[in-house]
């Protein structure tokens, strides 16, 4: 059978969807102060602008993945894209804090339909092992770029057009995806099972699936924690504007792409276990470097080295994790497995931000001096380094061929 000649254009479409979904996880970070002023949020309520999306996204990914397997991956992807368009429009038009939070919940629901179905379509579109490796590297690189590029795009758009446009940006992109989907994507589904458990325990008998998802979880903990901490440090301590902060941190997404493509080229030589180990080592090295930030820090010495190392590690780890996880399941379970993988990343991000921010606040206490605040950020970066160390231990112990665990459905 000849490969589908549309497969690379299909990959571009699916990667665009992945970029949009991941972008919305963080794009509102720098828009929160404007949203708070315009919609009258209570000071302790603005975190729901972020949390409502992350929680509904992460918690519904497994049903979304199973829906893709059973109802049709292209159909599920299209339905999710349509809902993402409508919910983004509602976010931008929100007239109150409650409306915005509800719209962000709907965005998370739609992302939970789009993401696992899109990744599953990548797996079913590319059947050749070599091409699939390249496709997954592109998918992961785009995802890593979207997670960090959000900070640049969000600040720039908010400053130029207002916070509403961080949501309105999704509307034309979603329209293009809806129009192009029927022309570029083939429908596929798993028609062999009906009424099966949402998450059959047998799927976790794969050491590679479990280990790959734990690597994704710990990598996301570090990625979201570092993005959150570096944004606050740069703006609160160094006095960067949102635009300057975005430009200064552009090295992170660039190096994430480099790490993703470089990593996939190394897989034939070192395997996914070696790549995951190398990625988590670089993540930890970047975090440890950032623990040296100072109240009067300079970009070239305090930020650039740590961000560059962290970006390389993020790209490598987020290639190795999904490849290990999805390579350890049958073709009929790719939607479910991709849902677990994406859920691990989203929930890991929420957990990482919570832990790192709590550690940072505990070390800062009630002090307001630059030295005290910077000390809190140093502690947060140290916590992120611990996440990377945990990921390394998991990569070395779990991502190795071995006898499957015996589990019953």
List the helices and strands and how they pair.
Blueprint lengths: L6 H20 L5 H8 L8 H24 L1 H21 L3 H29 L3 H33 L3 H4 L1 H15 L22 H31 L4 H7 L2 H40 L8 H28 L7 H31 L5 H29 L11
Helix pairs in contact: 1-5, 1-6, 1-8, 3-4, 3-5, 3-13, 4-5, 4-8, 5-6, 5-13, 6-10, 6-11, 6-12, 9-11, 9-12, 9-13, 9-14, 11-12, 11-14, 12-13, 13-14
Jot down its keywords.
single chain; 409 residues; mainly alpha; Growth Hormone, Chain: A; 0% strand; globular; disordered C terminus; Sugar_transporter_CS; transport; Major facilitator superfamily (MFS) profile domain-containing protein
Explain how this protein is built.
The chain has 409 residues and is mainly alpha-helical. It has one domain (8-185, 199-398): MFS general substrate transporter like domains (Growth Hormone, Chain: A), CATH 1.20.1250.20. Helices cover 78% and strands 0% of the residues. The protein contains 14 helices and no strands. Helix 9 runs antiparallel to helix 12 and helix 9 (207-237) packs antiparallel against helix 14.
Count up the domains: 1
How big a fraction of the residues is strand? under 5%
Instruction: Tell me the Rg in angstroms.
Output: 20 Å
Question: Any idea what the shape is?
Answer: globular
Tally the helices: what do you get? 14
Averaged pLDDT: 82
Range of helix content? over 70%
Q: Please tell me the CATH architecture by its name.
A: Up-down Bundle
Total number of strands? 0
Largest sheet properties: none
Within the CATH hierarchy, at the fold level, what is the topology?
A: Growth Hormone, Chain: A
Q: Segments where pLDDT lies below 50 for 5+ residues?
A: 402-409
CATH class: Mainly Alpha
- The H-level CATH homologous superfamily, spelled out, is MFS general substrate transporter like domains
Subcellular location: Cell membrane
GO molecular function: transmembrane transporter activity
Domain Major facilitator superfamily (MFS) profile: 10-403
Transmembrane segments: 47-65, 77-95, 101-123, 135-153, 165-185, 214-234, 240-262, 274-294, 306-329, 336-359, 379-399
């Amino acid at each position: 059978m000849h490969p589908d000649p549309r497969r690379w254009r299909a990959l571009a479409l699916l990667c665009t969807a992945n970029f949009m979904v991941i972008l919305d996880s963080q794009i509102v970070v720098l828009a929160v102060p404007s949203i708070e002023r315009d919609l009258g949020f209570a000071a302790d309520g603005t975190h729901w602008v972020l949390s409502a999306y992350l929680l509904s996204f992460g918690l519904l990914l497994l049903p979304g993945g199973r829906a893709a397997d059973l109802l049709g991956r292209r159909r599920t992807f299209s339905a999710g894209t349509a809902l993402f368009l409508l919910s983004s429009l509602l976010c931008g038009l929100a007239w109150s804090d409650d409306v915005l939070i509800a719209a962000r919940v709907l965005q998370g629901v739609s992302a939970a339909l789009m993401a696992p179905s899109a990744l599953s379509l990548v797996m079913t579109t590319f059947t050749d092992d070599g091409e699939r490796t390249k496709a997954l590297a592109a998918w992961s690189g785009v995802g890593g770029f979207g997670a960090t590029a959000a900070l640049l795009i969000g600040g720039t758009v908010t400053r130029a057009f207002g916070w509403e446009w961080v949501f309105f940006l999704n509307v034309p992109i979603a329209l293009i995806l809806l129009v192009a989907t029927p022309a570029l994507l083939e429908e596929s589904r798993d028609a062999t099972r009906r009424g099966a458990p949402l998450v059959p325990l047998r799927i976790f008998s794969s050491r590679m699936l479990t280990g790959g998802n734990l690597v994704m979880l710990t990598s996301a903990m570090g990625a979201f924690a570092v993005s959150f901490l570096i944004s606050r440090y740069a703006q609160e301590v160094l006095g960067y504007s949102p635009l300057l902060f975005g430009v200064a941190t552009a090295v992170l997404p660039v190096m994430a792409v480099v790490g993703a493509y470089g990593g996939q080229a190394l897989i034939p030589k070192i395997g996914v276990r070696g790549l995951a180990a190398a990625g988590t080592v670089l993540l930890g090295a970047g975090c440890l470097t950032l623990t040296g930030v100072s109240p009067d820090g300079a970009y070239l010495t305090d930020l650039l080295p740590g961000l560059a190392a962290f970006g390389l590690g993020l790209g490598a780890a987020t290639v190795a994790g999904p490849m290990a996880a999805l390579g350890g399941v049958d073709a009929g379970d790719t939607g479910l497995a991709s849902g677990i993988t994406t859920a691990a990343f989203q929930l890991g991000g929420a957990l990482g931000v919570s832990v790192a921010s709590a550690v940072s606040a505990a070390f800062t206490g009630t002090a307001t001096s630059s030295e005290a605040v910077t000390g809190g950020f140093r502690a947060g970066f140290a916590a992120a380094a611990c996440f990377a160390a945990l990921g390394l231990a998991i990569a070395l112990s779990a991502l190795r061929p071995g006898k499957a665990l015996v589990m019953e459905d």
